[in-house]
Write a structure and sequence with these properties.
The structure holds two protein chains of two kinds. Chain A is mostly helical. Chain A contains four helices and no strands. Helices cover about 65% and strands about 0% of the residues of chain A. Chain B has helices spanning about 1-15, 15-35, 40-50, 55-80, 90-100, 105-140, 145-160, 165-180, 205-225, 245-265, 270-285, 300-315, 315-320, 330-340, 345-350, 355-375, 380-385, 390-410, 410-430, 435-455, 465, 470-494, and strands at about 185, 190. A two-stranded antiparallel ribbon of chain B has the order 1-2. The relative contact order of chain B is 0.18. Classes of the chains: A mainly alpha, B mainly alpha. Chains A and B meet through helix 1, helix 2, helix 3 and helix 4 of A and helix 8, helix 9, helix 18, helix 19 and helix 20 of B.
Chain lengths: ~170, ~500
């Protein structure tokens, strides 16, 4: 099982990341006024506390990583090596969604996001690309999921979601 | 008698067709997402938070609570048939339930878990009805120092007790509190950590963090690491228990309900501990200890399932009377209340008595609905398990978009969601718990306000936390929670 636990170098990076975040918090805290009022502690108090606490945790994580690895760690589920290409497809889908949602509307952006993500997830399963017909089928499926969702949330539940046209139906 | 008339009033309000419909849809959605892998009740409620802009509070709280309970019922179905518990609370059910299913007794396991959930849910709802008003009366007497210490206790238990490593739990907690710091300070109006980005002025929405860390991270993690993971679905038999199985189940249900309830009411971090305790108790008391871990013992499903539901229902007591969430879903329910400008706490029982009692009454109704949804109709839900993973997870992204974009109509939030999703993947890979992040994010700002109010009362003196007996006691408990397990470990090693 221990074969799957991320390497100690990676663990050290996580510890360093926590330290960096703590430093960022401290940098931000130094710019907050300390005007305290009756309480004796102002709006900058908690930021400093959290920065110090997170710094302590980061240092300790780093120490654990460098002295034998994180303690009492469960091996994560799944493969030992990541399928980065599949991840890129899914992440790309979300980015496309964010880029298009205000231009092409919720339904189109989500259907595209669905198509890209489903392609990535399927390639992670080791299944073949399936050709343009499959892609078209996925896009239609995405539309068929996104459209009723759009109607349900905009018409029934009155949540604001952008449309492609001003009609409110698509 | 006053209690009785209030409850009757609540029942009348909860039984209007529109509220019954909300309860039913909530229970059905909850069961579905409980059965489906990838989504839990917390993230589902989070995704649906945008509806709080238009739907009236009573209806949406009934809806959200239905989802919360429904997910517990549905989660056990998946644990028994698929051996992949969706919720930590149903982990123990998977131990015995999956073994029973492997030996062709899936029907009995499903029946005992559904009926047990109903029995425990109903007992716990009666206890909520009886205890909440008493608790609220007591809570009126608490001041900011006590509230701050209670929140400190909630922080400690959520991050230090749950999960294996206190260090990683605390790291998650501090990250969550740090996220909660972004935006305008409630007391002075000072802007903190916005980096000049306009979107950060209102703070970081809970929806965004919950959806990013749970739903999007789950989807990304699947693409990255779990593409080739195989799972096998157990065959389901007839949902039916023999007379002997009934006789073995009911004492376990009652014991489970009793064990579960107290753990839900204190900030001790959800239903993991009571389900394990109940499992251990059943194993000790069983007349058939040889079945545990081999062919699957029905008590080992009945007890923990009851304990789980009882604990989940009991989380409403601290949530409604103190405004302190003891589970992730409760934390998100708290932010739903906040969206309406309602502050759960003792005053809620005065100012919004009708809402509180309608909500409690709807739990009785919801439990009956869930029993019907989960016993005769369980075959329907099992079909959901046949949906292939790729379209399922890709579809989740569409719902994630609804929740995150619908909250405040900003495409910027979708990029943030992706970023948090990547953080979630790292957290899962490196075994950091995610629950403390959510609890820290929601409870952090409240705790800060209580702390500063308390210090104002003490005119800047920290002694205010030690001079008041209640808050001093709570501080001792916090220290004990952090130190006692460590000391036991030390002594064992020495």
């Amino acid at each position: 099982m221990s074969a799957h636990v991320p390497s100690r170098n990676a663990q050290a990076l996580i510890g360093a990341g926590a330290l960096a975040l703590a430093a960022l918090l401290a940098y931000g805290a130094s710019g907050i006024s300390t005007e305290a009022g009756y309480a004796g502690v102002g709006p900058s108090f908690l930021p400093w506390v959290i920065s110090a606490a997170l710094g302590g945790c980061g240092a300790w994580l780093l120490y654990e990583a460098l002295s034998g690895g994180f303690r009492e760690m469960d091996a994560p589920s799944g493969a030992a090596r990541g399928d980065w290409r599949a991840l890129a497809w899914v992440a790309g889908g979300i980015v496309v969604n964010a880029l298009l949602i205000e231009r092409a509307g919720f339904v189109v952006a989500c259907a595209l996001c669905y198509t890209l993500a489903v392609h990535g997830l399927r390639s992670a399963e080791g299944r073949p690309w399936g050709g343009p017909r499959k892609v078209l089928l996925d896009a239609v499926t995405g539309m068929l999921i996104a459209t009723p969702v759009y109607w349900l949330f905009t018409k029934v539940l009155q949540v604001n979601l952008p449309g492609l046209t001003g009609t409110g139906w698509i | 008698m006053e209690l009785w008339s209030q409850l009757l009033g609540g029942l009348a309000a909860a039984a209007t067709p529109i509220n019954l419909l909300w309860a039913f849809v909530g229970c059905a959605v909850g069961t579905a997402i409980g059965v489906l892998p990838g989504l839990g009740p917390a993230v589902t409620v989070a995704m649906l938070l945008p509806i709080t802009a238009k739907v009236e509070p009573t209806a949406s709280m009934i809806f959200f609570c239905g989802i919360y309970y429904g997910a517990m019922y549905g989660g056990s179905t998946t644990s028994i048939l698929l051996n992949t518990p969706g919720e930590t609370g149903t982990m123990v059910t998977a131990l015995e339930g999956f073994k029973m299913a492997k030996n062709g007794r899936a029907g009995a396991a499903l029946a005992t878990s559904a009926i047990g959930s109903f029995v425990a849910g109903t007992i716990a709802t009666v206890l909520v009805t009886l205890f909440s008003p008493v608790m609220a009366e007591f809570a009126v007497k608490l001041g900011p120092p006590e509230y701050f210490c209670l929140m400190l206790l909630a922080f400690t238990t959520v991050s230090a007790v749950l999960g294996k490593s206190t260090l990683r739990g605390l790291t998650s907690l501090f990250v969550g509190i740090a996220l909660g710091l972004v935006g305008i300070d409630q007391i002075t109006g000072q802007v903190r950590y916005t980096g000049g980005v306009l979107e950060f002025m209102d703070g970081i929405e809970v929806v965004l963090v919950a959806v990013g860390l749970f739903a999007v991270a789950e989807c990304l993690y699947n693409a990255l690491y779990e593409g080739r993971a195989e799972s096998s679905l157990n065959r389901m038999g007839k949902v039916h228990m023999t007379r002997g199985e009934w006789r073995r189940s009911w004492p376990a249900w009652l014991r489970g309900s009793v064990i579960g309830f107290p753990f839900g009411t204190i900030p001790a971090g959800g239903s993991e501990i009571p389900t394990f305790l109940s499992y251990a108790a059943e194993r000790k008391l069983s007349k058939h200890p040889e079945e545990f871990g081999t062919t699957g013992a029905i008590e080992g499903v009945a007890g923990p399932e009851a304990a789980n539901n009882s604990a989940v229902t009991a989380t409403l007591v601290p949530l409604l009377t103190l405004g302190i969430p003891t589970s992730v879903t409760a934390a998100i329910l708290l932010s739903a209340f906040q969206n309406y400008g309602l502050n759960p706490g003792p005053q809620l029982f005065e100012s919004n008595a009708a809402l509180v009692w309608t909500l409690i009454a709807s739990l009785y109704i919801g439990n009956v609905m869930l029993l019907v949804l989960n016993l005769p109709m369980v075959g329907l839900w099992v079909k959901l398990l046949k949906i292939p993973k790729a379209p399922l997870y890709a579809g989740i992204l569409i719902f994630a978009t609804v929740g995150v974009y619908g909250m405040r109509q900003s495409a910027f939030d979708l990029y943030l969601m992706l970023g948090l999703g990547l953080v979630g993947v790292l957290m899962r890979r490196f075994d950091f718990p995610t629950a403390p992040v959510i609890v820290g994010l929601i409870l952090g700002p409240l705790a800060e306000a209580q702390m500063r109010n308390a210090l104002s009362i003490g005119q800047g003196s920290w002694m205010v936390f030690l001079e008041r007996p209640m808050s001093a006691t709570l501080l001792v408990i916090v220290a004990a929670v952090l130190l006692v397990p460590r000391m036991i470990a030390w002594r064992r090693r020495a």
